[in-house]
Amino acid sequence: MTVRTTVKSIQDIMRKDAGVDGDAQRISQLCWLFFLKIIDDQDQELELDSEDYLSPVPYRFQWRNWAADPEGMTGDTLLAFVNDDLFPALKSLSLDGRNRARCQVVRSVFEDAYNYMKSGQLLRQVINKINLIDFNTLADRQHFGEIYEQILNDLQSAGNAGEYYTPRAVTAFMVDRIDPKPGETLFDPACGTGGFLTCAIRHMRDRSVHKPEDEARMQAALRAVEKKPLPHMLAVTNMLLHGIADASFVKHNNTLARPYISWGQADRVDIVLTNPPFGGKEEDGIESNFPQAWRTRETADLFLALIIRLLKPGGRAAVVLPDGSLFGEGVKTRLKEHLMEECNLHTIVRLPNSVFRPYASIGTNLLFFEKGAPTRDIWFWEHQVPEGQKAYSMTKPIRLEHLADCADWWGGPHREGRVETERAWKVSAEDVKARGYNLDIKNPHTVAEDHGDPEALLKDLSAAEADVAAIRDQLKAILTEALTR
Fold first, then answer.
1. Could you tell me the CATH superfamily of domain 160-434?
2. pTM, entire model
3. pLDDT by residue (tens digit) across 371-381?
4. Are 82 and 115 in contact (CB under 8 A)?
5. Where are the strands (E) in 263-334, listed by range?
6. What one-character DSSP code corresponds to residue 83?
7. Cβ atoms 198, 238 nearer than 8 A
8. Cα pseudo-dihedral 67, 72, 74, 79, rounded to 10
9. pLDDT of 106-144, one tens digit each?
């Protein structure tokens, strides 16, 4: 049985259970079960490598000791074990012993996890299916990685998924343009399910991880925070799935809850890659953590202010922001002025409204900037939906090859060689300042559609309306005659 077939059969079993209601609960249930299997497979590999290795999961609750036997606990006995023993033990896991970081990972995953299944027999069937996957086998791990991406896609039915899901083509393009290296501290302050992290890990392993020391430096330099329980659990599992030994760097917290001024030199990072939540409002009091000039309850704006502070001199960032952040006034204007004074905002890639469908249908932009020198010129690139396609959709999403023309235009290591085209244009910082820091600058090379002479259009409209009225009168006469016979 293939991994894909196994995962589908697991989902089918869960749909029979009266306790699992909808995608969000099914995904959460899948996640903690997969997490325990993945971490136990990893533990067994680590135990072979080192006699001193100690699993963070107590012996009784290790997957191999309660779940691996297909004839093991089932029914009410299994439910009682999971609900009354397993969950309480892992939620309160001690952090005082050895392997503290890995213990913290397990505890953080289970702090907000819950067993939704009500049938112990169905739960045993799910567990037995999961046992068919060996996460220490490269082929199984790779195949499951593809399935995991599909599980993340399923979040579209689990509420407002757009706030923590970014199309993989977009994350891959942003990572490719930033080009992270092992040892560079890379931070996603609103990491969702970990899409930017996994793209960065793959990018570095493909291009610059050549020996074990490189891998160790890469893993040690990753940083991430996610506020919500479900995406946090998914992100941690995602890290384990991608061979990250210590996923404790994925913190379950609200990055914005920490006072702006408390982020000091030791917290500075080389790279920020993120799609901060936008369109939402932060809870009362969060904005008071920020300087008066930037206080707002708009999440994306607060994240932008923090990102500027967090970058080291020479640090670089790629950030997804909505159109509203480009043309907004007040706090948004002051933030854009601050961004252009502190950073070189060198590129803005303008994306069509349909890129984030079905999660959201608003215009978004990819902002690329570097800390340390003020902005002189901003290059804009307008991404267009492929010819023959009206918009992106769930069945026809944006793909990395759709962004290849922008990558080709991008230029050398320092973006040298760029030229204006029908898709690319340059605006000086002085022009932006004169516009009141309005960055919602349309493509000057786009020719406005000629809809015709207004007088002629009104004349045509009147004629069409007269024709419709005449046809309506004819139909009325026909119906009246038929009814009077």
1. Vaccinia Virus protein VP39 (3.40.50.150)
2. 0.85
3. 999 999 999 99
4. yes
5. 269-274, 311-322
6. I
7. yes
8. -40
9. 999 999 899 999 999 999 999 999 998 888 776 666 666
